[in-house]
């Protein structure tokens, strides 16, 4: 084990590295949707634009080998973090322009590819700088640090945007429009400064990361590896059933992910709950995400004890059935914050509980083979593609159907998940503790 007082102990760079990754990802793909909504954009476009930024993270296996070819992995981490910090500062300054959306959307799009590159390089540093024992030792810290990012972004920063808007700039919390620019400019400047600070920190403490033994040394060799990984992926036994599982398991969540926060902040006249950004940050971004973490821990414990094959269907139930809480809230429009918080916590807890099954299935069934890491990335890419497509459609469907009918559609979207889960193939011996 590496010494904790070493200048480059993993405790110095693993937590901050994965927190920085998650913070950038959440700002681009989740918090941006809330910002667009605050600025007066309709649900259709707000969900569509923020979902489009997922594309870079979905296709990152296609350009990951090129990152391996040049310089060190640390070099790409630092470059990406500097560019993200400067880019978020650019977002803040662009908001002062008359037609700021014409600048913001392309800038976010570019930053999403920079963020995906940061993910590739950061994972590379982790995998090549730590031996197998250390990777296992710090895996929990890695996962926890990544999950702190969403809590800070979707919880703390959304809450802060609301406090700035109402307490500092003296605007109404229930109105949407350009008045929100002042608050969100400060938020993006804070994230920019924090990201640049992390770049300086990682320049001091992060190891370079070693080149993998099979790293390609030319563009033609890289293309050859990509082609071979695709070919071998589609040669897997029952691959199409595994693809269906990877794409459809979280289908209903994809339809719910963007619209859930919109439902929270939309006024009751539009069928929403009329919450402020402060309450959204506390209920949805803090308590809800904490429930996801707790659910994930308990779901992992269940799978470890009972095995994936015997629990997968129940995990699918956990992901899908609690979505009904949003349908119930859209019908009754509760005003009591305890009931609203309970609905969100139930849905988020069981989502975390059941999603463990998805990730373990990819690791144990879809990924194994010659290109284990790449094929696992294909599986998560299919999940990202599902999120992208459902996110792009979700806002437009919600505006057409209204919240009650839309949440009925979310429940209907659980059916393909159950079918894909029921027919998911198992070819690897189930591992369990008893």
Automatic annotation (TrEMBL):
<feature type="domain" description="Major facilitator superfamily (MFS) profile">
    <location>
        <begin position="10"/>
        <end position="432"/>
    </location>
</feature>
<protein>
    <submittedName>
        <fullName>MFS transporter</fullName>
    </submittedName>
</protein>
<feature type="transmembrane region" description="Helical">
    <location>
        <begin position="137"/>
        <end position="160"/>
    </location>
</feature>
<feature type="transmembrane region" description="Helical">
    <location>
        <begin position="279"/>
        <end position="304"/>
    </location>
</feature>
<dbReference type="InterPro" id="IPR004752">
    <property type="entry name" value="AmpG_permease/AT-1"/>
</dbReference>
<dbReference type="InterPro" id="IPR011701">
    <property type="entry name" value="MFS"/>
</dbReference>
<keyword id="KW-0813">Transport</keyword>
<dbReference type="InterPro" id="IPR036259">
    <property type="entry name" value="MFS_trans_sf"/>
</dbReference>
<feature type="transmembrane region" description="Helical">
    <location>
        <begin position="46"/>
        <end position="63"/>
    </location>
</feature>
<dbReference type="Pfam" id="PF07690">
    <property type="entry name" value="MFS_1"/>
</dbReference>
<feature type="transmembrane region" description="Helical">
    <location>
        <begin position="180"/>
        <end position="201"/>
    </location>
</feature>
<dbReference type="InterPro" id="IPR020846">
    <property type="entry name" value="MFS_dom"/>
</dbReference>
<feature type="transmembrane region" description="Helical">
    <location>
        <begin position="403"/>
        <end position="424"/>
    </location>
</feature>
<feature type="transmembrane region" description="Helical">
    <location>
        <begin position="75"/>
        <end position="94"/>
    </location>
</feature>
<keyword id="KW-0812">Transmembrane</keyword>
<dbReference type="GO" id="GO:0022857">
    <property type="term" value="F:transmembrane transporter activity"/>
</dbReference>
<keyword id="KW-1133">Transmembrane helix</keyword>
<feature type="transmembrane region" description="Helical">
    <location>
        <begin position="239"/>
        <end position="259"/>
    </location>
</feature>
<feature type="transmembrane region" description="Helical">
    <location>
        <begin position="100"/>
        <end position="116"/>
    </location>
</feature>
<feature type="transmembrane region" description="Helical">
    <location>
        <begin position="338"/>
        <end position="363"/>
    </location>
</feature>
<dbReference type="GO" id="GO:0016020">
    <property type="term" value="C:membrane"/>
</dbReference>
<feature type="transmembrane region" description="Helical">
    <location>
        <begin position="12"/>
        <end position="34"/>
    </location>
</feature>
<keyword id="KW-0472">Membrane</keyword>
<feature type="transmembrane region" description="Helical">
    <location>
        <begin position="375"/>
        <end position="397"/>
    </location>
</feature>
<feature type="transmembrane region" description="Helical">
    <location>
        <begin position="311"/>
        <end position="332"/>
    </location>
</feature>
